[in-house]
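Take a sample.
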Amino acid sequence: MTVHPSLQTSIDAWTHSIDAISELVTPLPESEWNRATECPGWSVRDIVSHVIGLECEMLGDPRPIHTLPRDLFHMTGELGRYMEVQVDVRRCHTAPEMTSELEYTVIRRARQLRNEKRQPDTMVRWPGGGELSLEDALTRRAFDVWVHEQDLRRALNQPGNLDSPGAYVTRDLLLSALPKVVAKDAGAAPNSAVVFDVNGPIEFMRTVRVDADGRATIDGSVSLGPSVTLSLDWETYVRLACGRVRADAVAEQVKVEGDQQLADAILAHFAITP
């Protein structure tokens, strides 16, 4: 066996989602590639370009030499500019060029992952700067590809895979961010608890507990008398947590019981993606 067991879950999730993206976009006519998505400023073509670009960087390919135009107003910060290069350089590419490059990139990346012999704690370069452990890098790639698969599905009106392997990787990554969202960002009071009750293709209930010192933890046990309970469906949870939609736009899908002010603060800081 070449792949360490702790890496296999992320590799399987990545494979499932990247194959789904290929199946979604390969038959698209040229006009559909310009369809807008919920990812700010990005079309179907742009999302596929982003996926191709980051996988090429994970393969160690050199980045394109490209100057961004000045009218891309959806970009925010240096990370946004970094990510935009791989996208903007492909905005003139045709549908056949896009699908061919995607197919070739997936073949190369899948071969690399099948032959992965490094340990999970090996530090690897991460696109945008810095390093991550190999395990964290593969988890983030599985998360990113699944989220973008869902962006494409909503844009193309082809729902599905909300409970696929990538969805579970995404769930765990998003849940790991909740203590910071509740305690630090939203400012929940010491000795309080916030419950998240999520239904749909993936169902779970989690409680974020803030101790007397303001430190937060998360667990699956029931809380008696929480400060607030937020009930929503899984897809809405993902759209909020990934910054695809504002809380006021999905207010009817989010049921709040308890402290409305705290709930509003949590929802205002719910998005954890750049």
Summary: The radius of gyration is 20 Å. Residues 171-268 form a domain with the Nonspecific Lipid-transfer Protein; Chain A fold (CATH 3.30.1050.10). The first helix runs from residue 5 to 25. DSSP finds nine helices and seven strands in the chain.
